[in-house]
Amino acid sequence: MIDLTAITPHVVSRDLSGYITYVYGAPKVGKTTLASQMPKPLLLAFERGYNAIPGLMVQDVTTWAEVKQVERQLKKPEVKEMFSTICIDTVDIAATLCEKYVCNQHDVDTISKIPYGQGWGLLKKEFESVFRSITQMGYAVFFISHEKESQFTRQDGSQYSQIHPSVANTYNAIVENMVDLYGRMHTVYENGESKVKITLRSLDGTIKAGGRFKYIAPEIDSNYDALCTALNEAIDKEAAEHGGKYVTDERNVVVKETEYDFDDLMNKFNTIINTLQEKYSDEEFATKVAPRVTQITDRYLGRGKKVSNCNRDQSEMLSLIVTDLEDMTQVI
Questions:
Q1: pTM for the model
Q2: What's 311-323 look like in SS3?
Q3: How far is CA 210 from CA 12, 41, 178, 198, 207, in A?
Q4: What is the rounded distance in angstroms from the CA atom of residue 162 to the CA atom of residue 146?
Q5: Could you report the per-residue pLDDT of 279-315, keeping only the tens digit for each?
């Protein structure tokens, strides 16, 4: 039950494992290596980019059904003891498998052939729901993609180049909306030596990068410690604006999806109705109570629908009906 009076100010966590990270870059630049440095990582390998990384815990994935099997396995307490971060290598292939899954579900060969233009909406819902579910279980998620360069036109007609993830824009938009840290890994040469850097904030817009921290360093070394340092420095600068309040060293508490107990809700509904029937005469119940009950059920289930015909997928609506009935019993 929601209680707005119990709300407390949100605090920002310094623990990188509480966030969703998204990196992209050219092949062999070290994306999977960086993923392996995350806390207790499990690599979901949609491609075999891990052959040179000893000791990495890997689950090869070749279908979207296997992704959903992994999602179910991650709920187990013994699995939660083993892993803290789920690494997706790569988003590009994961997106292709998701699209194939949705097409097969609706017996079409392309997403555009799903009737009434619902294909892309169904695709987005399927892709997003799996990874949202994983974060709601308390895992950090580390997305990996390749890169490409594209030409874009400004409003004034001038053109510019931008390096961005190679994954299709539809999926990239979903991932971008989820992530806290988002950057491009690339190689630079300093004093005759090559180094891998991560651009986390593009100063001229030629590199797609960003995140939720306005003071994040524009560029850092490509390793877990540097990423943690950049995060904490950004948090410290923002915290200074609030007198150091609302910052914690503890991991972010992920908001879990509300689960409704269908059987319990149905029992509560029946108990309320039975109590009202005992309280009022048949005539009073028929003229005073029943119309109000009908009004409430119509509101959430549709006109003429009965609670007795509810299925388990309607548990959310049933919870609202029970809440309204509880409120009603206080005033009649």
A1: 0.71
A2: CHHHHHHHHHHHH
A3: 17, 23, 12, 11, 9
A4: 14
A5: 999 999 999 999 999 999 999 988 889 999 989 989 9
